Description:
- The structure is a single chain.
- The protein has helices spanning 21-30, 49-58, 69-81, 90-102, 118-130, 141-150, 168-176, 195-204, 216-228, and strands at residues 4-6, 39-43, 61-64, 110-114, 134-138, 156-160, 186-190, 208-211.
- It is α/β, with parallel strands linked by helices.
- The chain has 2 domains: 4-102, Response regulator (Rossmann fold); 110-228, Response regulator (Rossmann fold, 3-Layer(aba) Sandwich), CATH 3.40.50.
- Strands 5-4-6-7-8 form a 5-stranded parallel sheet, sandwiched between helices. The protein has a 3-stranded parallel sheet with strand order 1-2-3, sandwiched between helices.
Amino acid sequence: MTQIGLTAGARPAGRAPDTSGFELLQKIKKRPEHRRLPVIIYTGRDLTRKEETQLRRLAETIVVKDVHSPERLLDETTLYLHRVEDRLPETQRRMLDSFRTTAPCLSGAKVLVVDDDIRNIFAVAAFLEREQAIVRYAENGRDGLAMLEQDPSTNVVLMDIMMPEMDGYEVMRQIRRQPRFRSLPIIALTAKAMRDDRQKCIRAGASDYIAKPVDMQQLLSMLRMWLYR
């Protein structure tokens, strides 16, 4: 599998001076053979909401340059390339171990899981509780909204998309209508990560998205990023 890392707004080496990272990414994704190519954005810029939304429709993840960013970049590429960590060079293995030890942990973080499949809830909850997160769950969108109202100090929401009566898109739209929840991290759990699904999730209010079956290490990395922000 090939992977591309882009710096948002930068002019990639070897490209015309008027070609930005945004434009290059759009050109790449227009090619049928590259539509499912994983792309990680690595940027030091403070992105506007519009820029971040645009990038998240096209890229798998955005890594903001900070003290942990080289390690996080390695963590993300390892996940997307499905590389076996035991085969990585010793220096890279140490870098990963250091990042996972010193990166913000989930201890005490309040996570609300909204999913109509109790098996998914139990799997995610069991994993996050091992990371010492405080997990609550709802089996439908209405109950999820009610639980969020009861505890507005919730730190992050994991939102299933395909639910009966009220789907995840509508739940996220209702959450975002409330000013106090406009910056609340919401990670959409999608049955498939097709481009249209990603765009719909972001438009509905998702901060990020992850495809089912959930890769727990990828979810952990994603949660750390959003909680660290």
